[in-house]
Amino acid sequence: MAQPDTKKIFFENLSGAGKAIAVLTSGGDAQGMNAAVRAVVRMGLYVGAKVYFIHEGYQGMVDGGENIEEASWESVSSMLQVGGTVIGSARCKEFRNHEGRLKAAHNLVLQGITNLCVIGGDGSLTGANLFREEWSGLLTELVEQGLIEADAVQKYSALHIVGMVGSIDNDFCGTDMTIGTDSALHRIIEVVDAIMTTAQSHQRTFVLEVMGRHCGYLALVSALACGADWVLIPEMPPEDGWEDKMCKKLSATRSRGTRLNIIIVAEGAIDRHGTPITSGIVKDLVVKCLGFDTRVTILGHVQRGGTPSAFDRILASRMGVEAVLALLETTANTPACVVSLRGNQSVRLPLMECVQMTQEVQRAMDGKRFEEAVKLRGRSFENNLRTYKLLAHRKPESELPVSNFNVAVLNVGAPAAGMNAAVRSAVRVGISEGHKMFAVSDGFEGFYKGQIREVKWADVGGWTGQGGSLLGTKRTLPAKHVEKIAEQMRMNNINALLIVGGFEAFESLLQLYEARTTYEEFCIPMCMLPATISNNVPGTDLSIGADTALNAIVETCDRIKQSASGTKRRVFIIETMGGYCGYLASVGGLAAGADAAYIYEEPFDIKDLQANVEHLTEKMKTSIQRGLVLRNENCNENYTTDFIYQLYSEEGKGVFDSRKNVLGHMQQGGAPSPFDRNFGTKISAKAMQWVTKKLTETFRKGKGRVFANMEDSCCLLGMRRRALVFQPVVQLKDETDFVHRIPKEQWWLKLRPLMKILAKYKTSYDVSDSGQLEHVIRNRPKESDASVAM
């Protein structure tokens, strides 16, 4: 299936010939920085520019000499999976002074560099902008001192700056996610999951301190992802008397049979008066008031370390390419910008607008205007905080609204990591809205057999971090059993349905909608949340479970490539799941640094296979030691994994040998990633609020029942570009290829040329969807809160 026709603007029109681009990492390191450096170098070389590393950040720029080194294609090989930054980062006091910046300008001019790509936090980017503003004055001084020729002022008249935000704290306004944040969340959640097992064994309380001196993002999102009992963050200090409230909450949790408590504290947590709240203070408080066996774990720099997650590799690769495009398009009048992510889209934002907004947050916190600080952090942060409060703190029965509505939740299709987080969120939000919540076991098969039970708040405790489907899930569609399902709905007085699942869930909802003409029991609000590792559901860019599967693929690819370390040249052929959808193969290939990814949506023939073998042969004759080729399981019925393996083995004789690996169901297993836990939690909460609204709108007092038969009462909640959108399922039929179970248009196909470029193929890259310069919006419209990146 070919990529849909669009008006294309190819970057071939944006030549980098004669330009010199330098890339540096500054400030604290973050996982994914190397992926960004790799993308800048390879994209820069691809468009014909000279690219330079500046080692040790601004210190290397000031010191010059060997610190400024020309980069080659091979010099960034095998760095995608490495944490930290291989070109080094250092704090530089000298660059803060005019004399230091003068030295830096001299060193850049000596190499002819007038384009800088800076990867760092707000301090690093502010310094870059000041350097840009002073540039012409610095060159004039260098001429006066006789250090450069007078014509150099004209030749190198403007310094162009593009920034990428590398910070695990996610403390930079204007972007949904900074490079390194997702990986830091992985480290935190790995520790929390491990601690939960020992805490449960001994009935202990654990106080975890995570990074975030001025920003509580890591603490808040990890609390949301693990279902922590209490969280303390600098943006929203607890009300006076929080000590008693927290202890009552912990005690109530234990009284319901829970054997452990988790409290997460940001290192910058304070009370309403600005007094620090440390993990030690919290521990002493719990021991004194409750006598619980309590332990403290301070994660420290573990959060900065380790391999970058799939999300960070993809984010950094996309941002690195976008940064080069921005530098190619910039003029003397273009303001310094940062390339950023909003929803699922690349955007360019004026650097100083972002910096000023970030500084405003700190001023609001210093002025104890905490509500304002939360709002300034952005709608994603605000939504995280609201959702956490909704799910973690149960209202007393007396304070709950009474709706008299019964809402059923079920899983349909194959298991996907994050399904349980979505069910937990639905149950707890539903109870908070005053509904009775019912769980259906084993999908529609369990439904028609009457496997329906009421679930309470405590029944879903600890579900967030569990993989698979605790409710049980089957692929059975409802059409054959629609009469029995209608009977069960009548018997249990079900007033609304929430279905969590993949393509089968989509087909099921269509069948139930069509059954409305025969059975009034289906004339109720029905909503579907996409949850499948294949990411093949129409109406959404992302599905719950796909991120966990991508991380499993990337982690396995890293290990497989490492197995060939120090041996002769080797190419690995790896088969991924996904049915006919090439998402896992394509995006997994981009994150793992694959040389090729074969998918159904992009037809290929024997000539393409031969060209790929020849391309790898050429690369293997240089210093490249390992090759990686991914194949979607249903990409072609004749060019099987075995066929491709045998072809590569035969044609590569004398240059490289080949190995094959079928990843299979390991892509479906394991604990959900932080992304999937939070994505599932948040879209499920939004879906339940929609259900409540629809129930209220469609309740007919005269008949004493709910009656909803309009298209907009049977919806799929999906993420489209920057927005979470409720879409009637009947309107999605035309967008769907039912034979191959995929959407007719898929956004990620635009990422495929990116993978090819970074693998040194000559191809066209459509930049019509590339980020355009926008402005930082203080209060974004409500519908734009995709919060895709948590």
Automatic annotation (TrEMBL):
Entry's InterPro entries? 6-Pfructokinase_euk, ATP_PFK, PFK_vert-type, Phosphofructokinase_CS, Phosphofructokinase_dom, PKF_sf
Which residues participate in substrate binding?
A: S167, I168, D169, R204, M211, G212, R213, E267, R295, H301, V302, Q303, R304
Chemical reaction(s) catalysed: beta-D-fructose 6-phosphate + ATP = beta-D-fructose 1,6-bisphosphate + ADP + H(+)
Alphabetized, the UniProt keywords read: Acetylation, Allosteric enzyme, ATP-binding, Cytoplasm, Glycolysis, Glycoprotein, Kinase, Magnesium, Metal-binding, Nucleotide-binding, Phosphoprotein, Transferase
How activity is regulated? Answer: Allosterically activated by ADP, AMP, or fructose 2,6-bisphosphate, and allosterically inhibited by ATP or citrate.
Residues the entry annotates as binding beta-D-fructose 2,6-bisphosphate: 475, 532-536, 570, 577-579, 633, 659, 665-668, 741
Q: Which residues form the active site?
A: D169 (proton acceptor)
Q: Specify whether Hydrolase is a keyword of the entry.
A: no
Give this protein's Gene Ontology molecular function annotations. Answer: 6-phosphofructokinase activity; ATP binding; metal ion binding
Question: What EC number(s) are associated with this protein in UniProt?
Answer: 2.7.1.11
Q: Which CDD domains match?
A: Eukaryotic_PFK (cd00764)
Q: What's the subunit arrangement here? A: Homo- and heterotetramers.
Write the protein's name: ATP-dependent 6-phosphofructokinase
Q: What is the lineage of its organism?
A: Eukaryota, Metazoa, Chordata, Craniata, Vertebrata
